[in-house]
Design a protein that fits this description.
With 286 residues, the protein is of the alpha/beta class. It folds into 2 domains: 7-110 and 248-282, Rossmann fold; 119-243, NAD(P)-binding Rossmann-like Domain (Rossmann fold, 3-Layer(aba) Sandwich), CATH 3.40.50. It contains 10 helices and 12 strands. The strands form 2 sheets. It has a 6-stranded parallel β-sheet, with helices on both faces. The longest helix is centred in the last third of the chain and has 14 residues, at 223-236. It starts with 6 loop residues before the first strand and ends in a 21-residue tail after the last helix. The relative contact order is 0.16.
């Protein structure tokens, strides 16, 4: 065993990731953190038992190497808290962990329930935008910078705006998609899960009102971000175009809501109960 302390490999972003890492560290675990970019690392408080690995994992071979050769390996747990739309990495991670009998827990983010009276349209894919009449709409895009070009091309809206992450790569992609600098807001959604969704959505609300937005396009990612958009669109009478989340790469038996997941992990040196890797009742919604 390389690591001096019982360790966990956490694959995450900037949503629930900082909270999960803080809770694991407070419980006494050493945590290896996998993030796509250095910009995302800024959301995490430094800690002597927190190590980070930056950059995308290039397929099953890279995951296998990490499980075997990482400084904190072998891991007591692997926690997949990656974005619900990051299907490839989650599928590869599940397959490799199964092959190595590595305990894996995947964070379950239940989709936000539709608000009464809301104008919500569920889209199976971005290409479905072309079938909608959006020509006269003022469209806010909140779907990730990599998808902006496709969305702008297919939406055909009179004017498009976007909220993007505050990184040079996101800005380059947004400008390349044809969005004007004055139509962009560089803002990372709030990560303080103890705060209310209303407080977290203060900047989003201001953007919607300042730009006179009539329609919002976001992803069915669950968690605070989706709750913000659903709540604001219902309150302000806006149309919400919700891009349907892909199917989970692993069965529901491996999906854990946040608090049950942390309870399952427990503390170093404490043997978890029987049925490792399966939430009670097999219900991802808790």
């Amino acid at each position: 065993m390389h690591g001096p302390n019982p360790s966990i490999w956490l694959l995450s972003g900037t949503g629930e990731g900082p909270l999960i890492a803080a809770r694991l560290l407070a419980a006494g675990w050493s945590v290896q953190l996998s993030l796509v970019s250095e910009d995302a690392l800024r959301a995490y408080a430094p800690h002597p038992r927190l190590q980070s690995r930056l950059g995308a994992l290039a397929g099953p071979g890279a995951i296998e190497a990490e499980l075997q050769d990482a400084p904190l390996a072998p891991f007591r747990w692997v926690i997949d808290a990656s974005h619900p739309f990051a299907c490839r990495i989650s599928a590869d991670l599940a397959a490799v962990c199964a092959r190595f009998n590595q305990p894996l827990l995947r964070l379950w983010r239940p989709p936000a329930p539709q608000r009464p009276g809301s104008r919500l349209i569920l889209l199976d894919q971005l290409e479905d935008l072309a079938a909608l009449d959006l020509e006269g709409e003022r469209l806010m895009l909140a779907i990730g910078a990599r998808h902006l070009a496709r969305a702008v091309e297919r939406a055909g809206a009179r004017v498009c705006f976007a909220r993007i992450l505050p990184s040079p790569a996101s800005l380059r992609l947004a400008l390349a998609a044809g969005l004007a600098p004055g139509s962009l807001a560089c803002h990372r959604p709030g990560t303080g899960l103890s705060a209310t969704a209303t407080a977290l959505g203060a900047i989003e609300r201001a953007l919607l009102q300042h730009w006179g937005i009539t329609t919002v396009l976001c992803r069915q990612s669950g968690g605070p971000t989706e709750q913000i958009w659903q709540g604001l669109c219902a309150e302000l009478g806006l149309t919400l175009l919700l891009l349907k989340r892909p199917d989970e790469p692993i069965s529901e038996a491996g999906l854990w809501p946040l608090e049950p997941l942390l309870e399952r992990v427990g503390f170093p040196g404490v043997q978890p109960p029987a049925g490792e890797g399966k939430p009670s009742g097999g219900d991802p919604a808790g």
